[in-house]
Design brief:
By secondary structure, this protein is mainly alpha-helical. 43% of the residues lie in helices and 0% in strands. α1 (8-34) packs across α2.
């Protein structure tokens, strides 16, 4: 039997590809759950706080240096309300 060599870069690329495929579905599933089965901004009470043509912006301020995890998930939620 031929031995296989572990290639860290190949593994990294495979994981990145998997994450890019999984994030949109995970976000859509979470939004459907939070919004009672439909991912529609019209059913989200907090989304109704801003007019549809207005974009909100947020700034994260910390007291110490840190690591921010989940940027890709935040981008998916904020940029993709057209979820089937």
């Amino acid at each position: 039997m031929a031995s296989r060599r572990y290639d860290p870069e190949q593994r990294r690329q495979a994981l990145i590809k998997r994450i890019e495929q999984d994030i949109p579905e995970a976000v859509a599933r979470a939004l459907r759950e939070d919004l009672g089965g439909t991912a529609d901004a019209d059913h989200d009470i907090t989304a109704l706080l801003l007019p549809a043509n207005q974009q909100a912006e947020a700034r994260i301020i910390t007291r110490e240096a840190g690591v921010f995890c989940g940027k890709r998930w935040v981008e998916e939620v904020s940029c993709n309300w057209a979820i089937a």
